[in-house]
Amino acid sequence: QKEVEQDPGPLSVPEGAIVSLNCTYSNSAFQYFMWYRQYSRKGPELLMYTYSSGNKEDGRFTAQVDKSSKYISLFIRDSQPSDSATYLCAMSVAGAGNNRKLIWGLGTSLAVNP
Amino acid sequence: DTEVTQTPKHLVMGMTNKKSLKCEQHMGHRAMYWYKQKAKKPPELMFVYSYEKLSINESVPSRFSPECPNSSLLNLHLHALQPEDSALYLCASSQDPGQARYEQYFGPGTRLTVT
Q1: Chain centre distance of CA A24
Q2: CA B14 from centroid of its chain's CA atoms
Q3: Cys-Cys with B107: which of A6, A101, B49, B91 at CB 3.0–4.6 Å?
Q4: How confident is the model over A44-87, as pLDDT tens digits?
């Protein structure tokens, strides 16, 4: 079993829909949770980061963390064609020495159709 | 400003060539990272520099040689690569490598093709 599970999709929705993207994890040592957006052939762009259980909102994006269920979500409201990208969840964990590493989900490919 | 820059954007090299990838950040971040990303896969960590010292090497073959000349610059020297090394190479930085809150900021990547 992978430490982080994320359905790769693809997910296709009409413009204006609410999109729900999810990841589950197995390691309770994960402390920080991030969502990245990656357009084709570009580097990942940090969208949201959260630490505690609960919701965090930024514009059309809401990140949700449920540590008791080991489940995180990203909601996109009023989705736009420009939201079409791959969305990757990532979680930080202690690595070698005093360094932390990111453990990644596979990424979910999202297409928002006009 | 959360910008990480990488040069070149594209690189084609033969298996006997020597080339270098460059990365720069001016956010005062003390950790810098090299990742390799294949199509439809998440980034795969290669190296971590913490306060300009190599702190993590994820068992990367010696044909990849990282260098951190100062706190703003990171290089990846390439030599005798194989076609399977063709990928998007990403540089990232974060404020403090040891903090739980240490979101990483990525550059646009260098798309490398080995012929």
Answers
A1: 10
A2: 20
A3: B91
A4: 999 999 987 889 999 999 999 999 999 999 999 999 999 999 99
